[in-house]
Fold each of these.
Amino acid sequence: MKIPKRKLFLLIIFAYVAFSLYAAYNVFFSTKAISRVHRVVNKDTAPQDEWNPWENEQVDYNSALNRNREAFKQYLDKNKINKNKPKRYKVQVWGKAAIGLYLWEHVLEGSLNPTDKIAQWREGELQCGKVDYSFYTGPAVVQGHVPLDMNSLVLVLNGREQQKVSYSTRWLEHVQALVHSRTVSHVAVVLLGNEQCNNDWIGPYLKRNGGFVDLLFVVYDSPWVNDKDVFQWPLGVATYRQFPLVRPNAQLITSNRPYSCNFLGTVYKNSSRETLLQVLSESGLDKECITSAREKWLPQETTDSLQRYQAALAQSELTLCPVGFNTECYRIYEACSYGSVPVVEDVQTPGTCASGSTAPLRLLKAAGAPFIFISDWKELPSILERERAMSQEQKVDRRRRLLEWYGSFRQQMKERFTEVIEDAFFKNA
């Protein structure tokens, strides 16, 4: 069938108009959605000049996120390290009695600044076990003027006589106020006790009696010692008379000592010290020993008297240690410092100190002290006779063992002191 030309022309015109309208609609009115999948394009094929109005904000956000992630990672690493690192504790020591210097320099092996022994203010720091100690001593260390940046305190006091007790009581009352104000939480006392063991004045301050003192380390054979909250402490050397810390050396061990024994001290009327000198004189042994007796006790040494005393210890094989007001005396520890074997009068003195098979000197005996114990000075001639029969090698070996024991004894006291402090103050920390 033949289509008329006019109709064919109109059909072409209609198709062209329809196509034009469809194209115009797609260009100006279509809102075709773009999925998230289509938004992710390959970096290599994406248009390089496409502008994103949120691009800078996105970069800042990502940078901050990375920084936070890195900081959190470092925090976790730091906490991991801290968990593995042993925790340390701080304890302050106030030395308000001369035995504080024996505790600090001879037992804990700490140093003091300044080194001048008569300085008004001296201080030091050291680490022992898990504890960091700081120490303050001297006349200028007064109540309310000691820097206190920790809540655990050790107070070193003298309770030997009434005047000292009054002074010590004022310090205890000061510390009690610090406890009540919650400035201090834990308190220990190192006490030079009474030679007859009459220490009742400090009893009310102990925590077991309703007080605030957690621990008491007391000198002499107190019947209170239970190794729970009351511990026995060694008297040590006479630091109040400037007796020094003696470091062992080869000369001290191997030298040829010209004297068998020595005794320099006060001789009281009707005491065993009179018996001692009488035995030496009657047996003619006084020529083998260095002796110097005085009738009155002197609280301080002169430079000359201290040097003579130290020389006597260093030149004698034995140091004679008769009892005074107590069996335990400074002379015992001073003889050990020079490797001169203490010959100790092993008898109980009057008072309320503990008695029994191990008393007196139970702390030293428990530590295996290599001393010569006697009950009567009439035994001395036979002891000196045995000395004459010993060879130089035997004497040197004995000296070495004594010095090693004394060093070990102080180390044991150091470790025990710190262990007790850690357990009582910081066990539940």
Note: The radius of gyration is 42 Å.
Amino acid sequence: MFTGLSAFPLTPLVDDHLDEIAFSALIGRLNRAGVDSITALGSTGSYAYLSEQERARVAHLAVENAGDTPVFIGVGALRTSQVLAHATAAQRAGAAGLLLAPMSYQPLTEADVFELFRTLSEHTDLPVIVYDNPGTTHFTFSLDLYRRLTELPGISSIKIPGVPALAAEAREHVAKIRAVIPEHVSIGVSGDASAAQGLAASCDVWYSVIGGTLPELALRITRAVQAENTTEALAESARLAPLWELFAECGGSLRVVAAIAEQLGLAQRSCLPLPILGLDHSDRARVAACLIRLGL
């Protein structure tokens, strides 16, 4: 399951409540597009802002509307007991796997993070994705921690941050990770701007923000690499540079993707959880112009 394209959809809100209609439609759209898996309640899915009840409902709706596409559910939370509760709810909903980021308010140590994953691996028989996202968690995984975690039962994939831009450096970076983890554990690249380079450097899966809203775009890159047309994949990613630049210039991918979903009528205006306001009028105009320029 942990290969190809895993699409990370938004969890749209309306009037500060889960927009079940819009979310269900997003999931159905991903299934029809033919993504390899769907990861609900990742960072793009605003998991940290939702209540336990809202997250359980999102997990249910994701599985219900995904058809035969495997659904992974994010279970990150501040307390281990909350992580386990989210994992239980995800399993009841029919999730095919779990995604865990080490959330924190106080800085976490490697011992803290290892114990968190060990406890989850004992609690569930679902496969677990290690979510390395220092931009939001402010915790950086070491190679040794990768090694120790992937010795735990059930750890099946690592979602790594974006790879270096140069091909040789990207290959070296991925090779260093591959050298310390078991062969059965997949390596997944995130950071959409470097995804084509990561896949070309032998990452197994793209954990994609843009794939959750514009799946065909992400699939073109993924399928090109799978068909060994790396040059085509890199060229397509380069063509999308104006989009990647918006991600970098507008405070990250979440606000841009939300604006895209709103622009395309996939979510209502102001679909993000407050206090996240989304983009202002000027930046929304830039997003709209980018969509037109790229034919999206």
Note: The beta strands are 4-7, 13-14, 17-18, 37-40, 71-74, 97-100, 128-131, 155-160, 186-189, 205-208.
Amino acid sequence: MLKKNLSEKQIVYLIKGIVFFWLLTKIWSYKTWITERSYPVIPPVEMLEGVPNFLHQFLFGFSIVCLLTILSFKINRWLVISLFFSEIISCAMDTVRWQPWEYMYLCFLLVIIINFYKPKNIVLIAHLFLVSIYLFSGLHKFSRDFLNTVWLNMFLVNFLGLSIDFIVQYKLFFLGLLIPTIEVLLALLLLFSKYKKMVSYLLIVMHLCILIFIGPIGLQYNSVVWPWNLAMIFILLIVYLNPIKFSYKTVFANSYWLILWFIMPVLSLFGSWYQYFSFNLYSGKGDQMYICLLDNKKEFKPYFESSNSTFCKGKPTVNLQNWALKEIKSAPIPEAEIYGKIAVYLKRKYGNNTIKIILYNPRTRIRKEL
């Protein structure tokens, strides 16, 4: 990026903004990136279980230094490459680090690395990535899981304080389908409409509503995604600062991104691709893991559920998601394979006789002991 034309300045702002919000998120969720915690460190393959603890800490520190340097000084491509590989190695050592915001930032980073001297390419590819994010985030919400868990319980009851009788009387339950409909519609308009900047403003309003809903003045829930929503607002402002110049040649040359962002996420709708790589966000889908402690463990005390008789017959209970959000400020990865590995780890550490692990599906109400 040698000449400071408008597109190149746009990319500089984009990189600096991403780095700033990424830095905030990593600092806030620092326990996700180190091993000094109670929440299990679960690598994707067994051979990485013996990685020394100091390497986790070193990679976290190295990433922080890279982010601060990119933010403070002129952008250097090799430093961006170093940051990318540092994050990949760190994520390879613990599955919980593959958060949707981490995946998004890594994708943006790789797009920037590949097209470092082609800023117009970066803007166009970033535009397509944003379309994918909103499209599949909306599609995943077309389910009764979303209506029950997010729309009914979180929004209507907990956030607005409405009673079930009021909700039934005024038939508000299925009104929740407007949310995914609007999100998918905005994604399609972002792709096909000539008024992309206007659509981006509507998406910014959506993110502001999300921040009101789950932020400090709302439910105060999942605080690690607060800066992510601010990052999305910033990215929308920068990417659509100027009209998008569509080029079939550029799209064809970068068709591998289309496979990753538009083909693979389709498989997630059928359970054949990672949910967080498909931006399955706040859909209410998936199982919840409950840990029943037959022998009271002191390290679990801060994460006990206030009401635990349903799953563990009066024994102390820990909900894995609440534990993760409270201790490491990151949600568990909602994949059956990873839940299974966590169950194996906990039983190996605490013993089969002192711990019982149950997977519960809120929609089907089916319980399965691991």
Note: The chain has a mean pLDDT of 91.
